[in-house]
Structure to design on (577 residues):
RNA sequence: CGGGGCGUAGCGCAGCUUGGCUAGCGCGCUUGGUUCGGGACCAAGAGGUCGCGGGUUCAAAUCCCGCCGCCCCGACCA
């Protein structure tokens, strides 16, 4: 490929819209252009790099025994309404209505697919009848559409993006776990092949969210711009999304024996911190924090240790509510009889009370008296409060002891590239994906689902591999392996050598672009560094006078002067390594 | 949707506070010339409904109102 035959519009400055390195570089290196917020055109180099990632994903899926299919992006709304999560799903879906506002053609209303559990399960309901057909694992690589509340960082969170989504069907729970484990191993290989090292790549325990199902793990790559936080142990292998992470807290001493509950005046006290000050001097970890939430339009009480932050994802998981928010004061007062600052759960009934595990067994605690300006002391949580459900509700903090080995936990931001779930029978039951076992009895298939953000992975590669001069592509994902910087395209001798090296490399299957532009050397070097081709071959009068061409590694800066034939050999070896 | 910021040539910006004369600068682009191993130089050009609509005014990029778009922080997720 010759540079002049393609289109690589590099920019000297990054557009103001880009904030993070990968977004800036994708625009500057001419990989993509924005059409609208969260919607991008892939230019030739961006497309090539994208296709590399896609190929790695496809190869590893096939190797793991998954079967590629292609489902429609346009889907009947009615199918979603029959599925188990229509209420939660509507928020992110685009409806595909006729643009002129006219009625839908026969067949009903359509939506653009944000994911495909409903479609695949309905397909499985029609196609799978017998245990003899199981297990099956279908996948596709396809454009998804989501009405992201806030598109962000270029390809990191886009309204239109490419996802590899896969769905396994098994007869038994054990089988589903096997399918899941096979995918986990395949995902590990995909991301390793994309260039991520064990230091930055983490497979973490995660919350299942609206997807439902028993357990799930996310593949994360640590990065400053990541939208997730992961907690991991410095000593052992424990690592989890903070939405799920736990820690082993030291037991606190509450004194000899539980005292009786006593009310005392606390005029003007509004916060946990207020109570820690004179004249009260109640440590935050001796207080019970009482929070009121509206979960699916019903109030719930949430009890936390005073110094612990609530983790809303864990609360959502504990309550099973789809939508919840903090209650307003005008909702709290009629319910509790007091305003925030003096709230407490002692003696409270008729409202679900969720308590964090860190409060279990505690006594001689202080909490609001449900009377403005008063608190209670001597509270024994299990004796005095009718807890509906104990649950892990708090966010772990950096430095807390690892739940497995008690070494300090660290917290880092990370980008989620893949997510794998065991779904169970949530979808198959609802949509009738059943099979007959050996005895002729009908059972719902046990499902798993597995996603990789393919376009996001591309962005993450750039986010992780760049320096002050531009992108530093891992060989496996680079749009071209080699750039030949021909410094004097007008000089016949140089041009001939460049063409010969180019052709020889192509014959060996090396992807090479020949910079034949009529530009100054410095300009070509800057462009090559910005785009980040792993290997650059420089052909100019200087090198030729010394009897060869220069072969330079982008990542290390290492440079060798070699005769053309040697250079070709060296490069072929490096590319195949 | 809540909070913050921005919208002036393809890109990056100045001008707006305190309204006024032909709307400016750098990069990029075109033409000619000189250059040619780390984003060259000289000269001559092309390119703008100052996001859109309304208002105030003799006069609006500049002041006021409304809308739209983009970016950042939060709730959602591959």
């Amino acid at each position: 490929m010759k540079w002049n035959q393609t289109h690589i519009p590099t920019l000297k400055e990054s557009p103001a819209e880009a904030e993070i390195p990968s977004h800036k570089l994708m625009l500057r290196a001419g990989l993509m252009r924005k059409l609208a917020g969260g919607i991008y055109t892939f230019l030739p180099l961006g497309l090539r790099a994208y296709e590399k990632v896609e190929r790695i994903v496809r190869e590893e899926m096939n190797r793991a025994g998954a079967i590629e299919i292609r489902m429609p992006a346009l889907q009947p709304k009615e199918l979603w309404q029959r599925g188990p999560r229509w209420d939660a799903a509507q928020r992110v879906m685009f409806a595909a209505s006729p643009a002129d506002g006219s009625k839908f053609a026969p067949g009903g209303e359509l939506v653009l697919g944000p994911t495909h559990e409903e479609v695949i399960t309905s397909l499985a309901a029609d196609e799978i009848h017998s245990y003899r057909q199981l297990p099956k694992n279908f996948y596709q690589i396809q454009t998804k559409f989501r009405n992201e509340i806030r598109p962000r960082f270029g390809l990191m969170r886009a309204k239109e993006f490419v996802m590899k989504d896969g769905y396994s069907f098994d007869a038994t729970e054990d089988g589903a776990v096997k399918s899941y484990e096979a995918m986990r191993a395949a995902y590990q290989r995909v991301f390793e092949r994309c260039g991520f090292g064990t230091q930055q790549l983490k497979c973490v325990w995660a919350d299942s969210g609206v997807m439902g199902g028993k357990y799930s793990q996310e593949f994360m790559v640590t990065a400053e711009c990541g939208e997730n936080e992961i907690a991991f142990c410095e000593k052992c292998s424990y690592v989890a999304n903070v939405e799920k992470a736990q820690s082993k807290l030291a037991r606190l001493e509450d004194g000899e024996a539980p005292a009786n509950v006593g009310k005392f005046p606390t005029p003007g006290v509004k916060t946990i911190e207020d109570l820690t000050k004179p004249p009260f001097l109640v440590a935050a970890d001796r207080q019970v924090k009482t929070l009121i939430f509206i979960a699916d339009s019903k109030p719930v009480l949430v009890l936390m240790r005073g110094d612990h932050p609530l983790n809303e994802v864990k609360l959502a998981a504990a309550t099973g509510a789809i939508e919840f928010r903090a209650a307003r004061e005008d909702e709290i007062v009629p319910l509790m009889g007091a305003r925030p600052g003096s709230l407490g759960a002692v003696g409270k009934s008729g409202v679900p009370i969720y308590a964090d595990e860190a409060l279990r067994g505690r006594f001689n605690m202080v909490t609001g008296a449900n009377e403005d300006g008063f608190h209670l002391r001597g509270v024994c949580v299990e004796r005095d409060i009718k807890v509906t459900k104990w649950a892990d509700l708090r966010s772990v903090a950096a430095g807390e002891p690892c739940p497995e080995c008690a070494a300090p936990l660290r917290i880092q931001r990370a980008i989620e590239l893949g997510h794998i779930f065991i779904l169970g029978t949530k979808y198959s039951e609802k949509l009738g994906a059943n099979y007959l076992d050996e005895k002729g009895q009908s059972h719902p298939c046990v499902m798993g689902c597995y996603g990789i953000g393919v376009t996001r992975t591309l962005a993450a590669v750039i986010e992780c591999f760049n320096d002050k001069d531009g992108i530093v592509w891992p060989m496996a994902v680079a749009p071209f392996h080699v750039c030949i910087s021909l410094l004097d395209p007008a000089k016949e001798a140089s041009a001939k050598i460049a063409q010969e090296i180019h052709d020889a490399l192509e014959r060996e299957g090396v992807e090479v672009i020949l910079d034949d532009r009529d530009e100054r050397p410095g300009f070509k070097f800057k462009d090559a560094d910005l785009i980040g081709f792993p290997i650059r071959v420089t052909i100019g009068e200087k090198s030729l006078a010394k009897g060869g061409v220069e072969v330079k590694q982008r990542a290390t800066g290492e440079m060798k002067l070699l005769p053309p034939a040697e250079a070709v050999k060296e490069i072929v070896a490096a590319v195949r390594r």
Summary: Chain A is about 25% helix and 30% strand. The mean pLDDT of chain A is 92.
